[in-house]
Amino acid sequence: MSEAVVVPGARDVRGSLDAPEATDSCVVACPPHPQMGGSRSNPRLTAVGDALVERGVAYLRFDYGPWDEGTGELRDVANALDWARERYESVGLFGYSFGGCLALVAAADAPDLAAVSALAPAARIGDDLDAVAAIDAVACPGQVVYGERDDTVDWQPVVDRATERGFEVAAMAADHHFVGQSDDVAAAVSEFLAARV
Question: Which ranges of the chain would DSSP assign to H, the alpha helix?
Answer without folding.
Answer: 43-54, 71-87, 98-108, 131-135, 156-165, 182-194
